[in-house]
Amino acid sequence: MFVTGSVIGIYILVLYKMFPELLFDINNSIFYFVIPVSVIASVMIVLPKLTIKNKSSMQNTAPTTNDADSLLNELITEPSQPSTQDATVSPEEEKIDVSAIGGNNSEA
Q: How do residues 6-18 score in pLDDT, each as one tens digit?
């Protein structure tokens, strides 16, 4: 809607600056302002909403299984199989060789 408002605003600004007689005369205003603004709004706002609504209604009628839905359900609910990777490592299991830290300049 922001793009639509910007396009309409630029159109109005061009009419106002370059052709003010087309904007302020009521006979010309209908043909050069009202109809073009209505067409721009219907093409850029109403038409995409209708196509999205038709696509969603068509998808609802066709029963399909989607892998993304099953992955999303698995992420939201408890996983069916426990994970084999353990991301946390306890300090007892972690062995770091600190003698190599610092190189030749390290304090003894």
A: 999 999 999 999 9
**Cβ neighbours around 56 below 10 Å, total:** 9
Amino acid sitting at position 62: A
Taking alpha carbons only, the member of 30, 52, 47, 39 closest to residue 7 is 39
Q: Give me the residue label for tokens 């922001």.
A: 2
- In three-state secondary structure terms, 43 is helix
Rounded CA-CA distance 77/84 in Å is 18
pTM confidence score:
0.46
Tokens matching residue 51: 């196509």
Tracing tokens 């061009």 back to the chain, one arrives at 14
